Amino acid sequence: MPQRLRDAIRDVPDFPKPGILFKDITPVLADPVLLQLSIDKMTESASDFAIDKVVGIDARGFLFGPSVALAKNAGFVPVRKQGKLPWKTNSISYALEYGENILEIHQDAVSPGDRVMVIDDLLATGGTASATVKLLKELGAEVSCVIFLVELDFLDGRKNIDCDNIHSILNY
């Protein structure tokens, strides 16, 4: 079945800009069997870890995070782009390929000592995941693992993430 999952991910050349080969996961999301398989595989990747909170990264981490959180009997926490959360937040600026962005988390979203799992759809350069891990550690959380559906190995983004347990379901 993982081959069926791999086959469903569509390559979109020159998106969002020339020279980028975008890995489009929307065919996976549209197929209930593949969507469930993705959730199951992500949950299995964290089977060795007791988790208090699953942290989904804006925006595609929100697609998998709540389901994985329920499967792990954990809460779900969104990490969002600046200005999207209504309560008191901590924020972090991080570098993008061309420019920078800011992520935020509610100050009370995790407590010191909470064991958290970070989840997102794709690991490229690791900037967003790295910033998320830093935010969580600033709040005192223990980042148990970071899980992705897809990893672009040639970009070596995992080296930028301060976590010993990084797992990807599909590697390209």
From TrEMBL:
Homodimer. Catalyzes a salvage reaction resulting in the formation of AMP, that is energically less costly than de novo synthesis. Residues 49-161 form the Phosphoribosyltransferase domain. The keyword Transferase applies. PANTHER family: ADENINE PHOSPHORIBOSYLTRANSFERASE. The keyword Zinc-finger does not apply. Pathway: Purine metabolism; AMP biosynthesis via salvage pathway; AMP from adenine: step 1/1. It is found in: Cytoplasm. This is Adenine phosphoribosyltransferase. Gene3D superfamilies: 3.40.50.2020. Belongs to the purine/pyrimidine phosphoribosyltransferase family. Its EC number is 2.4.2.7. Keywords: Cytoplasm, Glycosyltransferase, Purine salvage, Transferase. GO terms for molecular function: adenine phosphoribosyltransferase activity. It catalyses: AMP + diphosphate = 5-phospho-alpha-D-ribose 1-diphosphate + adenine.
